[in-house]
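TODO from last week: model histidine kinase.
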Amino acid sequence: MFSRTSNLNNQYIFSIILVVLVSLACFAFKEIIGYKVIAFILLVTVSFVAMFYRIVPTLLAAVLSALIWNFFFIKPYFTFHIGNTEDQFMFFMYFVIALINAVLTFKIRQIERIANEKESKLKSIKLYNTLLDSLSHELKTPIAAIIGSTDALQSNTIMTENQKEKLLEEISIASLRLNNQVENLLNMSRLESGVIVSKMDWVDLNEIVYEVIRALKIKSYSQKIVVNVSENLPLFKLDYGLIEHVIYNLLNNAIIYTPQKSTITINLSYTDDTLQIAILDQGNGFPEDEIALVFDKFYRLKNSRPGGSGLGLSIVKGFIEAQNGTVTLENRVEGGAKFIIKIKTEVSKFNPTENE
């Protein structure tokens, strides 16, 4: 309440100051430009106030400008008395026009604000529907796979060990997929509520990358993952959980959306006091006009395959920014996409690769 009152008081003060300053400038040149032009300048000033301030400070500016115009610019000067009938009529018209101008400009701004709010609500509804559509697919599919495989195992049908192992593998893959979606939803909820706080500690980035690759092996992907590590890569002060999740999301995306048996490359380097992680693939890349949107929440490419919640890359961006880093995307000249993560962080003098 105090803040709102203080803001309104500031609007009153700035409205008065603006009208007075414009009037002083006009007063210095009143013999050159004439009082009729000054009336127009003051009306423009009132319109300017109405563009940014609430209705009462705007009306105050309109009334004040009319009184100043009368007192300082209409003969006889320095009195509110107007001797000329034409000037009396002009003053009356100025007063009316200033008030109407103030109200209409304010109303237009109010209508624009309502229209923007309506558009924002429509976008929110669209995002909500997109999320429901995506999640209905992403959650139903693994759940159906788990139920189907479990029913098959519980049935009295005689199965070979190989068939049982295949069903168990399907349950495991579906469970991981389900867990990944739930984790993404929880992480997005944490980002939205602002409770993500990075817990920085010394980490071996090389170790994290290979841990992620091992975790992804259960997906039975056919792509070849190549890891290039620059010499003498030190330990970095990062949030282990956040950076691991970022690399997992980017690699998982590359596995899902790139051709079978293609190569996914991870480059780890440290130059100019900046850690750089680059993940390159040999897929189709991204449409140039959509690159700026891929990190938006729930955004999915227009021609992307069904499924996916559109949360993965948004979470990547949030987790990297929580560690004071940046993530960018560009298309490769030779085809495919390249995600580049840059984080300025502390490093240790100890080099974990020296003892290997």
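Done. The CA atoms of residues 46 and 62 lie 6 Å apart.
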